[in-house]
Specification:
By secondary structure, the protein is α+β, with helices and mostly antiparallel strands. The protein has helices at about 10-20, 40-55, 115-120, 120-125, 180-185, and strands spanning about 25-30, 30-35, 60-65, 70-75, 80, 85-90, 100, 105-110, 135-140, 145-150, 155-160, 170, 175-180. It has a single domain (about 40-185), classed as tt1808, chain A (Alpha-Beta Complex), CATH 3.90.1570.10. A hairpin with a 6-residue loop joins β9 (about 135-140) and β10 (about 145-150).
């Protein structure tokens, strides 16, 4: 029994398809991965955080975007759509279409059961190769929990975890902050054992 060769696409073919269609996909090493739909809690958390950051950053050097802005990790070739991304200063793009950001300062992923391992592991490993990236946030949707990774001057990443609704997460890379109660506004957690 012989195996069929795996079909791969170039990054140019991937980008052309992304720009034509309404659905979003990740791309790495010639493979295209469909992104699944998000839960109400996931979408609400993204909207709450994006709105909070947009208001705080307005008029300053940084801008917040939701998951429609694609990010390319140049060193590894990953193309992906973070849930929230903040860029400070002049945005750098992959090409003249200005739809693939190269220099995010802050990236946020809202954890889902199907993506949590990837977001914590391989995806974060890709993101760490971005010289511009100063902070990475992982936000749980099934409980109040924000994990904040801050790049130190040594290149190491320091973890700070917030788990109480009254806590405030300070974002030094973009001179902003948010309360967990704002991010989880109108989110109901399942209280069953």
């Amino acid at each position: 029994m012989s195996s069929q060769p795996k079909s791969t696409v170039t990054h140019e073919e991937y980008l052309a398809a992304e720009r034509r269609g309404p659905q979003k996909h990740e791309y790495l090493d010639g493979e295209v991965f469909a992104m699944s739909g998000a839960s109400f809690a996931h979408v609400s958390i993204v909207a709450n955080l994006t709105g909070r950051l947009f208001g705080q950053l307005q008029g300053g050097p940084c801008r917040a975007f939701s998951s429609d802005l694609r990010v390319k990790v140049s060193r590894t070739g990953l193309y992906t759509y973070p849930d929230v991304v903040v860029v400070c200063g002049e945005p750098q793009f992959d090409d003249e279409h200005n739809d693939t950001l190269l220099n995010p300062r802050l990236i946020v992923e809202v954890l889902s059961p199907s993506t949590e391992t990837y977001d914590r592991g391989k995806k974060f490993a890709h993101y760490r190769t971005l010289d511009s990236l100063a902070e990475y946030l992982l936000i749980a949707q099934d409980q109040a929990r924000v994990e904040q990774f801050i790049r130190q001057s040594s290149g190491d990443w320091l973890l700070h975890e917030a788990t109480q609704m009254e806590e405030t997460v300070r974002l030094p890379s973009i001179e902003s902050q948010f309360a967990l109660s704002d991010v989880y506004d109108q989110i109901q957690f399942d209280q069953s054992p």
